Amino acid sequence: MNRQIRQLAAGLMLCYMLLFVALNYWQVGRQEEMNARFDNTRAVRREFDQPRGPIVTADGVVIADSVAVPPGGDFAFQRRYPTGELFAHVSGYYTFAFGATQLERTQNDVLTGETGEQQLRNLPNLITGADDSGSVRLTMRADLQEVARQALGPREGSIVLMSPRTGAVLAMWSYPSYDPNLVVSPDFDQAQAVLTFAQNDPRDPLLANSYQQRYMPGSTFKVLTTAIALTNGVTSPARVYEDVAEFVPPQTTDPIENYEGTVCGGDLLEVFTRSCNIPFAQMGLELGVDRMAAGVAAWGVGEPVPIDLPRPAASTFGDTSALDQALPLLAIRGFGQNDVQMVPLHMAMVASTIANGGQMMTPYVVDATLAHSGDVLATTTPTVWKTPITPAVSATIASMMENVAAEGTASCCIGLNGGVPVAAKTGTAQLNGPGQPERSHAWIVAYAPANDPQFAVAVMLEGTDAEISASTGGRLAGPIAKTMLDAALGLT
Amino acid sequence: MVSPAPIARARRSTELSLVVMAGTITAGAYTLASLGEFAAIPARIIPFLALLLGLLVLAHCAVRLFARGADPTLLPLAAILHGLGYVMITRLDEELAGLQTTWSILAIAAFVVTLVVVQRATDLGRYRWILLASGLGLLVLPLVPGVGVEVNGARIWVSLGPINFQPGEFAKLALAVFFAAYLAERRELLATGTWKVGFLRLPEPRHLLPIVAAWGISVLVMVGLNDLGSSLLFFTLFVVMLWVATERLWYLLVGGVLFAGAAWASFRMFSKVQTRVDRWLDPWADPQDTGYQILQGLYGLTDGGLTGTGLGLGSPSTVPYSESDFIFTSLGEELGLFGGAAFLISYLLLIGAGLRIALRTDNTFEKLLATGLTTIVGVQAFIIVGGVTRLVPLTGITLPFVSYGGSSLLSNYIILALLIRLSDASARRRHELPDDPTPGERWQAWRLRRRGAPA
Fold first, then answer.
1. Tell me, what's the pLDDT at B410?
2. Does A449 sit behind a cis peptide bond, omega within 30 degrees of 0 on the bond before it?
3. What value does the mean pLDDT take over residues A264-288?
4. Count of domains observed in chain B
């Protein structure tokens, strides 16, 4: 029997050696692969038990931070958003159950201290386990963001204020927003209810309308049409357009009218200042499909707006593949109707381009990332995204936009305090078809001071009710743009 | 009264120092787990230390008094497994921790009682038929309406008033004793083939019958209870004991073939078995449902890596039954490969000590009983650790001494007490210490003397 017992011992020992091999296989051999599995929440859980740095605005307001919670809860820290809905579309939220969005997602490595540089810096503290969480400093200013919120009020729309020379975004607000504090609530059921409610809201408060949504731009698009026409020599400041109320484009008998059927014409400055439609329809037709398509592409239309936030929308000129068989549509698109859709942030960049001598800067909200010590890890260097026009064309359009502000469609409401010179272009994008109740988006793009541009702004009010339908962009959006520029320039 | 025996004294002092080490490691782990989870020294550290020390000293004194020649490593090995398991349970679930404390006290009590009651291991053999009957009775008990309770698809629980227990845990013990006794008596008859069936030479049917019956019934009942892990354990236990007793490899091979057949049949018959095998082969086919437990367990192990997350710092509670069947992944997550390997080595040492007892004694019954009891612990730990590491298909069974559960803890401490008793007996047989009469024998002798000498 002893022989069998020894064999049994050997057999069991073999079995346990297999267990040891299996243990090695999982705990050492397959570690990386297993940790990358999507249903493996352990790394995320651990992250939730680590300190996470704050997100701070340029004027020092904390928009996201973490506080330690008493031991015994699910996690050691609770994320807070002290400014509530104000920066929700920029900070996003950071949750265990629903993932992370916006900067909480894209800047995760910095905030948790997991970038290579942070790890390297923290090497001496490896044993003590010192807090190595980083922080993110924004280009945005909380005071201007608050001004934007107050100016827009409970109206659906977006406001983007940026620096034309750098692309730095100073305010970017869209209503409706949401309170990320509710989404990161430790009460899972409540958080889920809030998210479900927001997702079912047709106004889509979770979506940052300022850079994740696009709208018909109306007459503000004439800036692009004019720029493309000037660049291609299709128009010039000397060109005079006939005084007409109607224009019949090719391939149709349906005439194109000016706004409210008025008679409108004159030289380029006059038709731009009065925002006649017909001259811009003619510019579109004279350019033709190919030159128009190439022209808008030079402005970045068709590409996602290159902001340092996730999932930005792309502006669009609409489908151009069969447009030469539908020239009336090309004509209408010349003044920003039909299938043309622009992202509000992109329109602010268009105004910035004129203000910046023809160079379109890459927009950004992250000014710098900082280590826990406060040392700067990285700063954002302004870069040129597109150069769609020459300085000469830019100067021509700039003078026309100044005229719009001084005596054109924006003259009612854009006059800045202290008489600081300003440039603007309004837009009213008609959403209703013939015979339907009137409904329009109200737009304005502007920059100031016109002689030394510091700030550019785009304001868009969604055409949701009759108030907006009855107005041109100037009257509704103009005062908001004025408020923003006044505040940014410190004018009282 | 007690005869001097230097070797016994040496063994007991070795045991005491090892037990103190096991206690120190447990107390340290208890403090670390609390520091990891709550960043504070545990609030109940004083009562915990008192209870830990009290139980360890009590168990040690029981061995010192009633089995002083026994192997000194058995109790410390059980203590370290039990202690670290307990720490993991307290770290996972406060409520279960309280219950496990009660179970721990009861288990040590059962350990002491077993040592006191079973003073001569060979006496157990006398009760083989009673043990067979009670073993089978215990197995069938969960099937009795009104008494049996089904939990998670397995009908292995019995609820008698306030007491809930898993009779299967005790049935395996009773059956191991029966088999040891029966085989010790008839091993020669079973080893010689006198009954010709075709070209095979089998033992006489009447010798084979009780074994086949006990085996068949227990396996059938286990399949009826839907408890595959225990069924596998029984199968292995019987086959191993038959093989060791008869010295015929034939039994092991036939047992293996029969097992393969039974496994194939249950695979074809029960969807639960099919699911288990499917998830063993590919747990990612259904990561949120049937594959969830094993995957989360594996994620825990991989997350632990070489050194583990540290006690109280992992998230083992994402695994269902992280405190019982899956406690090994909880430990592997927080203590790492090093900790997991320490557990495997502890079991190997326990197996080694158990089989050494079997080798050292020349009493056939004691040999077989030591083999059987060691096989239960060794194979049971292998089945569940192999299951959670995807070495073998997963079958729910507790990790001896470590998992949460009163029945499991109690039966394992009884096994431990019996092994210590067998170890002590073998030492006496080898004249390593004088074979003093037990208190029971002294009492009988005293009675005989009184009757024999009336004058």
1. 94
2. yes
3. 92
4. 1
CA dist A288 → A293, A294, A299 (Å): 9, 10, 17
Q: What domain range is B258 assigned to? A: 6-452
CA B299 to CA B289: how far, in whole Å? Answer: 15
Average pLDDT of span A369-381: 91
Is the pTM for the entire model greater than 0.80?
no
The per-residue pLDDT of chain B, averaged, comes to 87
Active site residues of A: 219
In chain A the first and final C-alpha atoms are separated, in Å, by 103
pLDDT at A157 over 70: yes
Domain range summary for chain A, segments of one domain joined by +: 2-35, 215-489
Taking CA atoms, what residue in B is nearest to A20? Answer: B341
For domain A215-489, give the CATH superfamily.
DD-peptidase/beta-lactamase superfamily (3.40.710.10)
Question: How far is it, in rounded angstroms, from Cα B176 to Cα B90?
Answer: 32
- Binding-face residues of B in 358-387 toward A, CB within 8 A: 358-359, 364, 367-368, 371, 375, 378-379, 382, 385-386
Domain assignment of residue B1, yes or no:
no
Distance from CA of B283 to the nearest CA of A (A): 12
Give A126-135 pLDDT, tens digit per residue.
666 677 889 9
Residue B86 lies in a domain: yes
Look at A19 and B391 and tell me if their CB atoms are within 8 Å. yes
Residues B263, B269: Cα–Cα separation, whole Å: 10
pLDDT at A396: 95
Question: Are B351 and A26 inside 8 Å of each other by CB?
Answer: no
Residues in chain B: 455
Q: Is the pLDDT of residue B2 over 70?
A: no
Contacts of A76 (CB under 8 A, 6+ apart): A48, A49, A50, A68, A69
> DSSP secondary structure string, A230-273?
HHTTS--TT-EEEEESEE--TT-SPPEE-GGG--EEEEHHHHHH
Residues of chain B with Cβ-Cβ distance to A19 below 8 Å are: 344, 382, 385-386, 389, 391
Residue A380: which of A138, A90, A135 has the closest Cα?
Answer: A138
Closest CA to B157 of B91, B211, B230: B230
The helix/strand/coil state of B9 is: helix
Nearest by CB to residue A42, choosing from B315, B358, B359, is B315
